[in-house]
Amino acid sequence: MARKTIGIDLGGSHVLAAVVGDDGAIVARAEHDIVDHDFESVVKIIGAAVDEANASSKERVETIGIGSPGDIDAATGAVRYSPNFGWHDAPLGARLTERFGCAVVVANDARCATLGEYTFGTGRGTHDFVLLTLGTGIGGGIVAAGELVRGNLGGAGEIGHHQLRATDGFICGCGKTGCFEAQASGLGLIRHALAIAPSFPRSTLVSGKPEKLGSKAIRKAAEAGDGHGRAAWARYIDDLASGLANVIAFVNPECIALGGGVASAGAFLIDAVTPRVDALTTMVPRGMTRIVAAALGNDAGAIGAATMARRGGLSARASV
Ligand SMILES: [Zn+2]
Fold this sequence. Notes:
With 320 residues, the chain is α/β, with parallel strands linked by helices. It is built from nine helices and 13 strands. The strands form three sheets. Strands 3-2-1-4-8 form a five-stranded mixed β-sheet. A five-stranded mixed β-sheet has the order 11-10-9-12-13, sandwiched between helices.
């Protein structure tokens, strides 16, 4: 390895630190749970994860890249605002530089995952690409004409917060109603199932506590032909397809990769959503955007963060 680089994917409940090779392969890794969202506690846990991932070799770490939830100031590496952590102007980059004595580059976690998936996963070889992670929320990122779209203040790619159902949708974590994220994330699938539950009084899906209901159980029920599961899944697919068709209208990508928990459904998801997206695609030829399951899974963020660190910034171009 020419330069030892560490990529960190910081999530609300856990952190992954990985030594990543030039080829995007993870050489060593460490994952730690985050229980306390206090800034100094999180910095301590990140430090422990990096030390553990780095323990196998004495070689000095040259650069660190970290993807964090929230709005990031690219110039200072500070987290301007992160609702997940409750942070305002948290000097994440500066504290990690102090701790490790090397250059640290900070960016939004979803943008890092997009860079990873674009460079080493399903985006390889394309120039116009979108990653959407369907987890608790919907994280996203856009590559247009071979470059990651960052926007004026680094906020481009917040695809999860375009509104699909402004009057009759679920309330989103951002405060708006019917955002793509509220309707089509993993949590959105659960909300669809709960919303129609009164129509299925004998459903086994909601026989336990509602908070125990998971998106995987609903998908499995849909796959098995359960009436409640199928109805929830159909509503979910409709909303997901609306959002994907909007993405196609906005940026006309060659490929949209779907990651996150719901995308682990693979062909069951892709085969259901693709014809619906085609039906809603009106201004460009239908069927020209490949919709695929993302390849790097939960590693995309750390791999992308390391790629960003090596390049000195959040760019999809190999030479910055
Ligand atoms: Zn929203």
